[in-house]
Amino acid sequence: MEGETKPMRVLVTGGxxxxxxxxxxxxKQEGGAREGEEWIFLSSKEADLTNAAETRAIFEKHRPTHIxxxxxxxxxxxLHLRENLDFWKKNLSINENVLQTAxxxxxxxxxxxxxxxxFPDKTTYPIDETMIHNGPPHESNWGYAYAKRMVDVHNRxxxxxxxxxxxxxxxxxxxxxxxxxxxEDGHVLPALVHKTYKAKRDGTALEVWGxxxxxxxxxxxxxxxxxxxxxxxxxxxxxxxxxxVGEEEEMTIKDVANAIVDAFEFTGPVNYDTxxxxxxxxxxxxxxxxxxxxxxxxxxxxxAAVKETCDWFANNYSVARK
Length: 322
Known about the structure:
two-stranded parallel sheet; Rossmann fold; alpha/beta
């Protein structure tokens, strides 16, 4: 950060996941790290962040000055429907341990990663950063959503009581290499990537859960990584910031399925199982605040990002999370 005299040691929790791997690509492979910055990518194998003692031991070991906090229990719609209590308890523990320990170790800045599912279910669109606490989230994932909302509560209280400049980003639906491609428990896009890969391999029909009319905005993990690094270095507000493509790039799940079908050159039948839940049908987010800061930021075109994701999955099928 500008004016910083001591070295900047950045600890990335959830460093082996979708966004962590993308940040590692940006700062290491693409040369995005600045002189004097040290980047440490922490995986769940190295510490259980639901455990306060293990969290403290990691801080003792690495002595971070800055944190990008990505570690979380995450999953797709159908996992949320089954395990709302687990999502609430585990994420609440992780976030409390990381944020409290960061304060105790005098960490200068923490950037936590939230999700657009934290916004109220009954609301006006587009949603923006001022609307987080205006009503209950969608019942399908309220455990996760409320736990993530509490990060914002913690950050604001920590600033008022201790002057800490801890903040959060709110990405829309993230996808890319190193995602969790589980058909049962993954998010919609990676689950469809896996389903389409198998349908092409096995010569079967592609089955899409739901009617395909749900609307979503998608952000490529590498674009999100670049924005997270910018937030860490440059964004000085406590209030969260939505990181997303514009409202005009919102698309249906059917559009997503078609893009994946094109990427794999799948020619078999595509069936929609309308007996399955569609989840929240709409959660259009405004990126106006991001555009005020970065009017010229260029997002990777959706079809190109989907093609890269599908190619990565096909080339890494044996080791990909699924």
